[in-house]
Structure formats: C-alpha cells, structure tokens
Amino acid sequence: MKNMKKIMVLLLAFVFIVIVSSCSNNNTSLKRKYDDITITNDKYRNYYEIFVRSFYDSDGDGIGDLKGVTEKLDYVKDLGFNGIWLMPVNKGTSYHKYDVEDYYGIDKDFGTLADMEELITKCHEKGINIIMDLVVNHTSNRHPWFVTACNNLKAGKTTAEYTDFYNFNTTGGNGYSSVQGTKYHYECQFWSGMPDLNLDSQNVKNEIKNIMKFWLDKGVDGFRLDACTSYYTNMTTQNVQFLKWLYNEAKAIKEDVYMVGEAWVTADTNVRKYYDSGADSFFCFPVSQGSGSVANCLRSNKANPGELFTKLIQSQEDIYDIGILAPFLSNHDTKRAASFLGRDNFEKIKFAQGLISLMKGCTFVYYGEEIGMTSPDEDDPCKRVAFLWDTRDSEGYVTKQPESKYVTDAYYYYGSSKEQLEDPNSITNYYKYANYIRNANPEIARGVTTTYDYTELSTQISVFQRTYNNSTVTIVANLSYDTPVTIKLDKETLKFEKMTQYLCATYADEVVLNGDEITLPAYSYAILK
Ligand code: CA
C-alpha cells in the first residue's frame, strides 16, 4: 500500500508538471514548433546548392566527395531542404569542374559513378530531388572533342571529326584564341581553357541529348543550366530558341524534368524573356546580391522598407506570369550574403533569407549561407571554401581548399554548423525554421499573390496573401530593423482566423496577434490562416 501511495503521488506530480508546462508553453507555442507535415511532392522545392569539393570529405583525403554528400543528406533534410543542386561533378580540368572533359564520368576527386548512383538513390529515399549542373556552353580545352578537332585542323582535315563542334574561323576576333600551329582561331568567351561549343551543330545537339538521357536515366531529376546567356553570346532570341529545344528534348526523356537556367541579367523583364523557352525556372538575379532588391529593401536608411517589399512581391506576380520563380541571395559566383549585407548585421543576415523564403517558386540556398559564412576576399576560390562542420581539426573537415589558399577563421565568423544547430538564435536555426514555414504552407511557393496597401498605417510593414487550391495564407512582415509595430489588420478582407507560425530574427522576440491587432518586432513575419 505504501508503495501504491508513492506511485499515486508520483503520478499526480507528473500530471501537474505536464499541465504546468503546457500552460507555460501557450505564449510561445508558435515559436519554432516542428509539427509533422506532409511536404508537397512537386517541382516547388527548397534547393540547397552544393560545391562537392568543399562540402564534406568522407575518406580523409582532404577533398569533399559524393559519399560525403550522401552522409550529410540527413543534415540537408533536417534543415528543410528537399532539393539539392550539385555543382559540376563530371571529370573537369579546374578545381570547380566547369570545364568538362567527360560528360559521362565522375571526377575522381569526387568519387565514382557508383557513388553518384548511391547518392541519387539515397536522395530519393529521403524525398530530396537532385539536379546537376549541365555545362554545354563550352567544354574544357582538354575534352577529346576539342583535342581531336584541333589535331584535324593541324593535319589540314578541316571538315573531319569534331571540327564542327566548336566555332573555328580564320579571322579571330573578340573572345577568340588561336589554335597553335594553324591559321585557325576558336571562340572562347570565358577564357582560352573553355572553348565554346557550336550549338548550331546537329552533332553537338545529338551529344547533348545523349548526355541528358544518360543522367536522367540514372535518376537525376533535372539540370541547372550553366551560362544560358552565353550560348549565343548576349543574343537573347537565339538563346531562348536553343533553350526551347533543350527543354523539349529533356521533357521527351523525362516528362517531369526540372530545369533552372542561369540567365545572369539584372532586370526582371530580361529574366522573364528566358521563360518563353518553356524551361521551368531561371534564377532571379534581380533579388540577389548586395545590389539586388532584397538588400535594397533592408538598407537601414529606407523609410518605407515594407512598402518597397510589397511592391517587389507585386511586380514579381505581374512580370513572372509563367514558370517557377527561382529566388536566391547568393551563389558560387557572388559574394556571400554575410559579406554583402555586412558581417556584423546578424539579424539582417537572417531576415534577408526570411524575405527570400516568402517569395514564390523554388528557393536556392548556397551551402554555408546557413552558417553565415563570409567571403572576405574578392577572388572566386574565396566564395567556395570548405564548410565548417565542427572545429577545424575534427574529422570530416575538408582541408584542401580551392587553389590551396589559406583560409582563416574570418570565413567562419558565426562559428561551426555544430555550434549553431545547438543555438536557437543561430543563423542555421533561422534558415531551418524559414524552410519549415515554407514547407508547412504550400501556398507560399505556389499561390497567386494579392498585395494590400497598408502604407497609411505603416510603411515598414508588408501585407500580402497567397492562394493555392482554394486555401489562402496571409503574410504580414515588419521590415524595420529596429522598430516594432502594432497595427489593426482588415479582418473582413483578409479573412484569417489565427496565426499559425511566426519567425523573428531575434529568437527571444515574439509576434502577438490579438483579434485583428498584430504586434510585430523588428525583422519579423507571421503567417495567418
Ligand atoms: Ca574525399
């Protein structure tokens, strides 16, 4: 009996603790909760861009590899990404592999074809789509096609094999380099090590078809198309025409193929032109980098950041009337966000991604942005240094940096991934929750946008809705870097019932909804439904 009494007391104490803890959780119950959600299985995904060399080294040779990516898929998934874009993994000449020597092979630095097949299988088991870089604007000058073509020209066999694969002429010109020992020049708009392919050649087109078929048959879900504006250098109509051919060929192989093109142009209307090709997405360069529209909204001298963001969201709705938007802050060719937003602007670094994650389409995050890596130097290798998993000397850390440049702790200002995963206020956990909100509300990526003008009440807030499958979410954001705001929302029009999630750049902050009145701390947003 005595024991029975003890058990009862313990049980009552347990029930009391459960009740008390659930009460105390009420105020913060919307803060970073991760309910089980069913993530919509379609083309609208949160992509994570991986530079394999710098990501995770599985075998201790100092170079990141495909097995390393496979080992870290749980990390990728835990962060709410359900797509990965692999930068080139084919055999290439430079450390970055954008100069392909063999489109069907895997570079030995990164592993084997079997490693790639395993990665594809493991991705799909975890609900992650995998797209790979398709670099068909140019090859390496060590590609057998180019080597053979040059040898044929040297032998005077000017119409022999592969001489139609590149743009040879006898006059040279801007962006041309000479073929040693001949009167010929070849087009190489980037540099002499990357001869431009002749995309008018039916033989080249047949090869491209074969390459796409090879990888789609292996199970990749699509391609990131490198250098689309350079296919026919700065000739938009021809580029769009070629992309149309490319996309239709890919679709004929795999009906639901996803293609995202690198059309590096600065105006939305110019990016939009590329969508006429029918390809799913083109990177939204106008929102990216220090000169882009997200950074512009967040400049601290702006009196109306919310109004600017609402206009941006509306203009995206108006301009991108077809296809899937592909917003991003940075990639392997740009400065890292923490560098262009200002290294010490901890909250701004988080909130910039928050704003990206409220846009339509597929978002793209470059590896390392989620730990706030910086790019203190200007050259390309410094934008592509090793990811910091744990301390510098721990196992699995990539030690061979691109071009063996010494990398200092300055690149890892906010510390390692391990440290940040343990800190709810970290950049990593902010990214994770922004992705969670996006996954939990399929309307955000897929819905039709309606914006609302609240400038009479406040120019620092932005209010808009997305409607998808007859379901509407209302998004309210405070873009002020230092000032909270309380406003009355028009509940009649917006027709929301409750707040389902919110995200503040400072973890300790809270958004409070009281009837139709909402209070948003600086750099925060809420989802109402
Ligand atoms: Ca390795």
Would you mind describing this structure in some detail?
- Mean pLDDT is 93; it is low at 14-27.
- The chain has a 7-stranded parallel β-sheet. Strands 13-14-15-20-17 form a 5-stranded antiparallel β-sheet.
- Helix content is 32%, strand content 17%.
- With 529 residues, it is an alpha/beta fold.
- Helix 7 (202-218) crosses helix 8 (236-253) and helix 13 runs parallel beside helix 15 (427-440).
- The chain is built from 17 helices and 20 strands.
- Strand 7 (176-178) and strand 8 (185-187) form a beta hairpin.
- Residues 57-59, 61, 63, 65 line the site of calcium ion.
Structure classification: alpha/beta
Kindly, what is the distance between the CA atoms of the first and last residues, rounded to a whole number of angstroms? 53 Å
The Rg value, from CA coordinates, equals 25 Å
Mean pLDDT across the residues is: 93
Contiguous helical run count: 17
Sheet with the most strands, sense and barrel status: 7 strands, parallel
Low-confidence stretches: 14-27
**In what range is the share of β-strand residues?**
15-25%
Number of strands: 20
Bound molecules: calcium ion
What is the global morphology? Answer: globular
Strand neighbour order, sheet with most strands: 11-10-9-5-2-1-12
Helix proportion range = 25-40%
